Amino acid sequence: FKGGRPIDENLLSELEELLYTSDLGPIAGELTEELARLHKRGELKGEDDVRTCLRTTLLGKLGEGGGEVELTHKPEVILVVGVNGSGKTTSIAKLAHRFKTQGKSVLLGAGDTFRAAAADQLAIWAERNGAEIVRQNKDNADPAAVAFDTVSAALARDIDVVLIDTAGRLHTQRNLMDELAKVRRVIAKKIPDAPHHTWLVIDGTNGQNAIEQAKQFTAAVEVTGLVVAKLDGTARGGAVFGIHEALGLPVQYIGTGESLELLEPFEPEPFVDAIVS
Amino acid sequence: SLTDRLSSSFSFFRGKKELTADNIEEGLKGVRQALLEADVHFKLAREFTERVRERALGDKRLKGVDPSEQFVHAVHEELVELMGPEDARLSYAKTGPTVILMAGLQGAGKTTTCAKLAKHLREKHQKRPLLVAADVKRPAAVEQLQILGNNIGIPVFHVPGKTPPEVCAAGVAEAKATGCDVVLLDTAGRLHVDDELMDEVAEIARVTSPDDQVLVVDAMTGQDAVNSAKAFHERLTLSGVILTKMDGDARGGAALALKEITGAPILFVGTGEKVDDIDAFHPERMAGRILG
Ligand SMILES: Nc1nc2c(ncn2[C@@H]2O[C@H](COP(=O)(O)OP(=O)(O)OP(=O)(O)O)[C@@H](O)[C@H]2O)c(=O)[nH]1
Ligand SMILES: Nc1nc2c(ncn2[C@@H]2O[C@H](COP(=O)(O)OP(=O)(O)OP(=O)(O)O)[C@@H](O)[C@H]2O)c(=O)[nH]1
Ligand SMILES: [Mg+2]
Ligand SMILES: [Mg+2]
């Protein structure tokens, strides 16, 4: 039989399972139904046809945009947000490494003034990267104040890229989302169109809740892009499709490990191939 | 809620005297949909739905009960049974300190949960815990646990320059020497596909013979929960699970994978970032949450 296996219930249910277990959620069901419809209309001849169609559809769902950020301001200000433990601080470390390797000067803002040893964690990464860091100078400083000081320092020191770390928070915590909105407003006080980028770091192992995270964080601080961390495991990060469908957010980078070089600009084809193949 | 979701399919229950194989199909579809939206694993959602089918049809002797109510009740009860038991306990050592190994994926909440559990054991069970900082890799991981321990007056043990199994073994010895009756081993986050790190955690277990091997899991985890649960259970024979970040709005369907794959009880849930934010696990509440 040319074109791989014939299209039957087994193939379709196999593909449905593949999509669901990649965390595509309801989109998995929709796509499978669409494939079944196309098959009924005689538009798909065999398994190869189906896989090609699926691949094309998924690529289409990711749209254009994303990947490596273009640095067009000096300093380029990037605010990094997300729920607890998603990978913000480590992703900032990796971004610092990437920009330093590109010959840029980097300043980190230790905007997590809440969690135990958060600033220490970032300071160690700053040192390993040869990046500068601004941290609070008294206990329980206001994260907005740290953000403000960081951006001020960046201007004074002629820095190329500023990365501002924030404390993890659940999107259901109203007061913490308000705090984040304040951090963003305060940054804009110092540099009117900053932050130029607000990136939401998503844990690649999260399921459908990642979509709700994206919606709420975007409502609070106008997220401009995603970083999907922890894609070096077996999770496929399929929630990205739901996020893109709801908000059109591009994926800028993906994290594929715990060391500094394990951050890549997002490329839709390998991402989709990891799901479909 | 599940009832709302099923209400459109309840029209087929209306006027029926009992649940039959035919009229139950729509209801089962709704249940499976609810589970998939709640991050229940694809295969488990199907298996569970089959169990509900058998139960709902098997229960049809309940006369005088509205079939739709009977159906929802069957779904709920089946899930509660799956999620249980309620009031699961840690195992305590007969002699010497009780060793609790805390393992899990990166960022799940292990370090924070170690501190929470230590405080809980001291306040509610009159234990004298020792926290062992065995994550030697993550920047400032040891400091993080030291600060948390300091905040609640619980000692934190660490030896610089040693491997995690060495630190843990020394920690257990320290507990024995200082009369601590519970040792909590905080380990580095690790991927279940990282053979070297999975060997390391198995080695930690080998040299400390834990009384409890606990998997700490983020409640937002999606379909991957099955994979990590399987791998950790194979290497460690888990005796318990702690589900963290339950103060969010993730439905927590990963809990089904954990229970089905490991059979280990869910011991506690993390409900916030503060050291007191640890609660008992309630199967009925979890069932309701998953079903939405
Ligand atoms: N395997 C893997 N681990 C990662 C990746 N990114 C981050 N991590 C790990 O995930 C854990 C949490 O990372 P952090 O950077 O501390 O996460 P965070 O979002 O800053 O956490 P909070 O500040 O506590 O909210 C650490 O153990 C990191 O090493 C990744 O791409 N792959
Ligand atoms: N909201 C909420 N946050 C939590 C909970 N448990 C832990 N956290 C937060 O989640 C983040 C990660 O917690 P950690 O204790 O550092 O996680 P970990 O598993 O030790 O991380 P690694 O050691 O890097 O693998 C921190 O910001 C914690 O404050 C919880 O139950 N609710
Ligand atoms: Mg952080
Ligand atoms: Mg830790």
Write a concise keyword list for the protein shown above.
heterodimer; A: 277 residues; alpha/beta; eight-stranded mixed sheet; 10 helices; 47% helix; B: 292 residues; 11 helices; 8 strands; 48% helix; 13% strand; binds guanosine-5'-triphosphate; binds magnesium ion
Structural class of chain A: alpha/beta
Shape annotation of chain B: elongated
User: What is the succession of H and E elements of chain B?
Assistant: HHHHEHEHEHEHEHEHEEH
Estimated share of beta-strand residues of chain A: 5-15%
Helix share, percent of chain B: 40-55%
Low-confidence stretches of chain B: none
Give the helix level of chain A as a range of percent: 40-55%
Bulk shape of chain A: elongated
Task: Write a concise synopsis of the structure shown.
Chain A is built from ten helices and eight strands. Chain A has 277 residues and is of the alpha/beta class.
Topology (elements, then pairings):
The complex is a heterodimer of chains A (277) and B (292).
Chain A: H1 9-20, H2 26-40, H3 47-62, E1 76-81, H4 88-101, E2 106-111, H5 118-129, E3 132-134, H6 143-156, E4 161-166, H7 174-190, E5 197-203, H8 209-221, E6 225-229, H9 239-247, E7 251-255, E8 263-265, H10 268-276
Parallel strand pairs in A: 1-4, 1-5, 2-3, 2-4, 5-6, 6-7
Antiparallel strand pairs in A: 7-8
Chain B: H1 2-7, H2 24-37, H3 42-58, H4 67-83, E1 98-103, H5 110-125, E2 129-133, H6 141-152, E3 156-157, H7 164-178, E4 182-186, H8 195-208, E5 212-218, H9 225-236, E6 240-244, H10 254-262, E7 266-270, E8 278-280, H11 283-291
Parallel strand pairs in B: 1-4, 1-5, 2-3, 2-4, 5-6, 6-7
Antiparallel strand pairs in B: 7-8
Helix pairs in contact in B: 2-3, 3-4, 4-11, 5-6, 7-8, 9-10
The structure holds guanosine-5'-triphosphate (2 copies) and magnesium ion (2 copies).
One guanosine-5'-triphosphate sits between chains B (104, 106-112, 135, 138, 141, 188-189, 244-245, 247, 270-273, 277) and A (84-85, 115, 168, 170).
